[in-house]
């Protein structure tokens, strides 16, 4: 069925409608007009189906003649952001799904957000793309969840810095207190092992001294062992 047939039917309907204007009560002309209208409607439907089928074949032919992009993990690309539908530079971190329905895990550059996208949602970088950080105006806006996560991490890091500073302050105070104590001890003539370069494990000057023993260098305490009691006959009388 061709478009020329449709034009013929439309001309015939126009002629019948002209005749009906002169003779509105003519049943034969009225029936013919209704048949022509149905025929025109069917013809339009058939032509539309033919055009759709032809377009589908053309698309399949174009798709088969155009080589598909083969992606691997680590490739850089442009990916569509699900929030605003815009395209941003990204890097592929993982590829899953079946051969006919690939799913790509991507990370947008400058962000830690991971998204799963389909093949239609990624495309190669343009030839004139320069691998530099995009200007502020080109960066996508963070979602509410991403902003909350960034704020939480910021507060957590600030808390860590505050705790470290407090611990360093306490350690400095302890060191100052100990140094003050040792200076007072030195002035009073009290010797503290481990201070002023001395150590309790230092070898004493006295050859009789022992390492690690307080007061080392002094003589050993004499120990008197008890002797056995000798029995004599006079002991019983006593």
Provide an overview of this structure.
This protein has a five-stranded antiparallel β-sheet with strand order 4-3-2-1-5, with no helix packed on it. The radius of gyration is 50 Å and the shape is rod-shaped. It has helices at residues 3-22, 27-65, 144-187, 234-237, and strands at residues 76-80, 87-97, 102-108, 114-118, 122-123. The chain is an alpha+beta fold and 238 residues long.
Q: Which series of helices and strands comes N to C?
A: HHEEEEEHH
Q: Helicity, in percent?
A: 40-55%
Question: If you average the pLDDT, what whole number results?
Answer: 75
Q: Strand order within the widest sheet?
A: 4-3-2-1-5
Proportion of β residues? 5-15%
Query: Which stretches of 5+ consecutive residues score pLDDT under 50?
Result: 132-138
What's the helix count?
Answer: 4
Label the overall shape: rod-shaped
Report on the biggest sheet: 5 strands, antiparallel
Distance separating the two termini: 155 Å
The total beta strand count reads 5
Q: Give the radius of gyration.
A: 50 Å
Task: Classify the secondary structure makeup into a structural class.
Answer: alpha+beta
Topology diagram in text:
Elements: H1 3-22, H2 27-65, E1 76-80, E2 87-97, E3 102-108, E4 114-118, E5 122-123, H3 144-187, H4 234-237
Antiparallel strand pairs: 1-2, 1-5, 2-3, 3-4
Helix pairs in contact: 1-2
Notable traits:
single chain, 238 residues, five-stranded antiparallel β-sheet, 4 helices, 45% helix
